[in-house]
Amino acid sequence: MTKKRVTFLAIIAILIVTFYLVYLFYFSKPTNFPTDEQLVEKINEVYPQARVETILDSFTLDQEHVYVPFKSHDNEYGTSYWVWEKHKWKPMYIDSVGEPRFWKIDPKDPSRSYIIWNVHPDDQVTGANFYLIRDRNYHISYDVNEYIPRVQMEEYVDFEEKSYGVLELPDDWRSFLSQSTNVSAAQNSEMPFLSISDVHTSIGWMPLDDNQEMTFPENSVNGHGFINGEIVLDFVLTMEEFDLEK
What we know:
The chain crosses the membrane at residues 7-26. By secondary structure, this protein is of the alpha+beta class. It is 22% helix and 37% strand.
């Protein structure tokens, strides 16, 4: 075997190994999700301050994204957000408390966004109204007057059976967000120097007690967290009655 042939075969072997490793780390299908015991061990390893004691549940959002609520040794009810990345399951964010968050798995695709929570049972929240709100606005551009009406959408979720969970965005919410994203993108492409963006749209919630009156979940806010990778999480605003329109 000539030296050139040996060199050629060596290069082929290296390329095969390289392609295999690239596939393994970036394109391979997820393995089985860790057991509860493994989840506790991993969260406490990555973020010891979480002091996780019990895994409450696991919510598979898609093949590569899982939400895991937990209870800690300090009687805190926290959240962890898991992503399949580079051939392993990784907690991208760990939070010691469970006030709602808006997880945008793909910020460009509202159908892959979820509202997630793990409210402390001591807060006695029996349900919540979740809201999608776009502010009313008016502006003038190039002598063109444009009025943008307010949008307010509501979705009720019962917390009596479980104080933790996931809300997949309702169809009308997803449709509205997709339309807003497309309109904003079109406006910006036509006049990029104006940096036109859609009027501010936010996600909010109103926690409710047994009497269906607003209550403040004092044990579910003001915690501490740890970011362990790339993730898009938005706060879910706590709404008051005066924030809403009837």
